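Two records follow; treat each independently.
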Amino acid sequence: MTQQASRRDFLKTSAAASVGAAFWVANEPKVSLGNNALEKLNFACIGVEGKGSSDTDSAGRYGNVVALCDIDESRLNKKARRYKGVAKYVDYREMLDEMGDKIDAVTVSTPDHSHAPASALAIRAGKHCFTQKPLTWSVMEARKLRELANEHKVATQMGNQGTSHDGLREGVEVLRAGAIGDVSEVHVWTNRPVWPQGTGRPQGKEAIPEGLHWDLFLGPAPVRPYSSAYHPFKWRGWLDFGTGALGDMACHTANMVVMALELFDPISVVSDDTGIVENETYPQSSTITFQFGKTDKRGPVKMTWYDGGRKPSVDLIQGEEFSNSGSLVVGSAGTLFSPNDYGSQFFLLPKEKFKDYKKPEPTLPRSPGHFKEFAIACAGGPPAMSNFNYASRLTETILLGNAAMKAGKKLEWDAKAAKFTNAPEANQYLGRTYRDGWKL
């Protein structure tokens, strides 16, 4: 038996003294936390600034942070000051190769284009994997991570934190209980982008800042010169690195209704005529329409996404005030309105009709906390609700919208065959060939 396999078995059998003898009783988690460092999960954190900073601290709350990795040495060293004696790396491939037997789980909080290769490498090494949203940069990467997670039987979770909120789970229960009747249309909007996009490639050449490993930032993406237009933070709007406003927020804002109605595998998707700019960046605003076919649980549904300040018709909110981000679910007997990024708050319209409405009895477990769900799953407890079997399908659905933007036409999707049936030329937008040295 390998040292890694022995440690995994030990963690599971000693879970009562660490992140818990984890199980659900009457929709509540029963967990016992301990303080013995030898019985805690060992985490390696890939990407440790921005959202990666809080993800690293969550790992430290529920385990031992034994390694940090970031392509920016200034960020890496800043975070390492909090975790004295931790191993530091700028290349996660080297980290996993050198410290594999000392690592139980990883967090992946990099730019979107590096989510899949980092997560896949960790999963193949038998590590539990927490990956920020969107799960991947492309549709086919999302499908591959689902396959790998099931093959290697590791615990997984995507970082769409709203999944753990009671309000989101209540909203799912309300919709599944039929409170607003048969749902026919969904509208989801965001105030993103809040970063520059809608421009061409930067001109000129900039010196790479000291301590920034630009080639490692590029990872699987094509080579291009460094520019401060990409890093830090502003990478989201660039096709090679980010997934735009849709990828950034839809895994949050559409999460409740996708989960409730199982809005997976649309039969078609189309973007409006505001398209990609110079094959470099996403547009400043867009509207994307997803059509979902009838299932044995619901009728056909149309979901429309809006970003860059666009919103659905004001008539739909029946006199309520529009929020900067939110969702509307329109049914035959009423409307559910969530004025919230995460779907964690909602009310039913018209308000007078639903003033005495009683929520159904809970059918979903209430969360002990988003990252804690992951830690419990790593210790042998139940899967986190946003595990890759769910999160990858949510991500696939969402990222088909970016493929439609790139194609500039309506696309008809065959999910089983994983291809567009009416536009074979658009299948190139489902994934890409990694550059040498990087693999999925």
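The next record belongs to a different protein.
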Amino acid sequence: MNNLLKYALIFIALVIFGAFLLVALIPGVNVPWQQLTGTADTDEETVERELVVADGFSVTLFADDVPNARWLAVTRNGDVLVSQPRRGQVSLLRADANEDGRADGQRVLIDGLRRPHGLFLHEDWLYIAESDAVGRVPFDHSDRRLAGSYQRIVKGLDDSGNHWTKTIDLGPDGWVYLSSGSSCNVCEEENPRRATIMRFKPEGGEPEIFATGLRNSVGFDWSPVSGELYATDNGRDWLGDDFPPDELNRVKKGAFYGWPYANGNRVPDPDFGVDASAEIEQKIDKSTPPVHGFRAHNAPLGIHFLESPLQPRGYWDSALVALHGSWNRSEKDGYKVVSLHWDASGNIRERDFLQGFLSDDGETVFGRPVAFAEDANGNIYISDDYAGAVYRVRAGKNPRGGTIPGNRPPIQAPPKPQPIDSGAAQRGEEIYQRFDCARCHAEQMPLRNLARKYSLQQLADYFDTPTPPMPKYDFSATQKRALAHYLMSLEHRIESTAPLN
């Protein structure tokens, strides 16, 4: 009997291993091997020895006991919230009040969730995207605790198959945007919500589909200059080391971005686009190509447009992208953070920003960056789900304090002059009308001489700490910038010289 049991267990193990091997060899099937590889440990010495950040910045280890650290958000107190899907929880890392470079403490804020991933804070609510729902819970910034019960406001999201993570963020138009990846490597989805970006009102309800053909857009953010939505997208697997490129897409309402019929710049997919019907060929021809391509299988995840004027001038309005790293390549690639820079013509230049997560020989992985958050002081937090860590990148400071030679102290950053952007001004006017700002400012507190008192960025920052009786609205960075553009655009109509109240 014992021998029979032993042989049965061996047979079962061989069947399971053979199934994994067979699936890995079938084109069109995606096996998330990165979920089977375990994690690495890290410490301050490893970070100091291995990680290299761009000139003008320094990097330190903020927290090193955050298993499966994924999405981030910063509270008004400067605490960092981090989602941990595999643990079903969101943790709070206390702000570094003692200035030793590390989080001053850590605790679980909420647990019992179904693979929580995306999160953001808005109007004393913490929004959390679980794999099958979106919920929110009142959050007290002052005492760092939940102030009520958690309620799911969007339900019935599909989390079967691959790419189950859901990412959410509040758009400048007041809608909550939600990404949902494909259920497969390449296929025609039965569920129309898969491989899309959707949106819904902050109170919840049935999401509407905003854009389609996005295989796995884990990260997205809005440009503070144009207000346009940009999203990363992971290309399909099993077409070789160097194809297809991973993508950065400028996402517009109603647009189709190619998957599963095309890859990259409208290149027909060998499984679903080659020798396809006339209808599919037309879909490919009308699909929207990416505005930037990353190296194949680099797995771009989080994207964040830098918002603080305390960043070095060369990084104003640039975006950071986390390249999580390849698994479907003969040689590892990615495993770093890059910065994207737009020129006056809209061309995008990619630079290395934070490297060293992969050893020089390409064999040892020290970490896999995921997402970003930026606080009011310009600190940039970066999560790492492989090392279970959160890093802090600072401009103009070295890890032991003081300024980096040849770099200005961040607090002395001059205001950045910017021309008025008509598109941003139009969105700002919508915000101005939505919150009925004219009720007070038209007569009681007229807005005058703003350009003499503020730069665009200073005016946008004003909305974080307005002078009473003006209330604090908790605008997003993009909303603040849009409102500043609108108010500055009114300057030629203003005749008196009363101060902003």
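Discussion point: Confidence is low (pLDDT under 50) at residues 13-38, 398-417, 492-501. How would you locate this feature using only the token line?
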